[in-house]
Give the backbone structure.
Amino acid sequence: MIKSMHQILADESLETIEKALQAALKRTDESPFWLQKALPFAHAVLSVSIPLRDQNLLFDPEGRPADSLTPQLLLRWCDLVSLKTLAFTLQKSNDSKFLLRTQYDQASAQQYEPVDLSVLGKYLSGYMINLEDESLDFPIAHYNLHIGIADVLAKLIK
């Protein structure tokens, strides 16, 4: 039985999701430039989304709890500003060992297990996103580039 991307995101491993994305990329007519950018970006987003999914602590960029990792939720995190906010939220949560900046109740937030941010941090720092000071902005060109990358991902996961 062939699973949809919705089903794959909901319960498969990072490796399986990435294989599905790679297979979808092979079937597209996108420029090699976009193809080279899409998988590392997806990997960075998924490197933190999947651990949250596995802890049943997914949330959207506004901090509202989410029941499952869906294509729509993944794309919401593909916004570079949202992804930067997610990185800082998880770093603060890792430091406190308590899920912060979300609308989860206290009992649920206390169940939070720190998430490895190394992949996401490396990705974001590669695009000149300051990981020390959340209030600092980043070059608009990087934001615009990520709009294009997110468009490619949107086509892959529909």
About this structure: The radius of gyration is 15 Å. The longest helix spans residues 32-54. The chain has one domain: 5-157. Residues 5-157 form one domain.
